[in-house]
Amino acid sequence: MEKQTKKTAPAAPKRDEEPVTNSRGLATQDKILEAAKTLLLKEGATKLTVSAVAKKAGVTPSAVRYHFGNTDMVLGGLLCEYYDYAGTQIAERITVAKICLHRARSKLKAIDEYFDWWRSSRREDPQYEALGKVLHGMSSTSETVRALEASWYEELASRMGRLSGTDLVCFLLAFRGYCSAKRLKEYVHVDEEHEELFDRLLEPR
What pTM was computed for the model? Predict the structure, then answer.
């Protein structure tokens, strides 16, 4: 089974201060991110201000600035958290895809079996799924989100370039819903043989 790393994108760019490593500081960061997530999903990006996040988290605005600097960095923290969630989802999907490909008589039959499982049995967190859509939709306005998203696709392209055959099919099946075929093609050369595979496996059905 392909080993999945917990982080599939780098952490948000560091500020001048030393990173917080004590438990109290990490707990404060978690409170800030949870508050920001709630605001972003319920009220939208326009309501995501340092003051609003601080009030929701029960901390001072200076605490938000100390840990993250500004709201763009908070968005980066949320995206990294989302990529952690996506990593666990992808690990399970790769396992299921390999099982389907192992027991099916043909690759096309295996793909159909995988999508049967995907439609009926996959387990997802609605909040994280919604968060991912909102954050990726903000890549045009947030420099931090844009940079982290680019790193995500660069990592996918790098991993895909080392795979072939069944492993490549499993990889593309697992990442369906977590990346766009159109965006991935910006980072990796797709020959005619894999063009149809990309479009079939990655885009929504």
Answer: 0.79
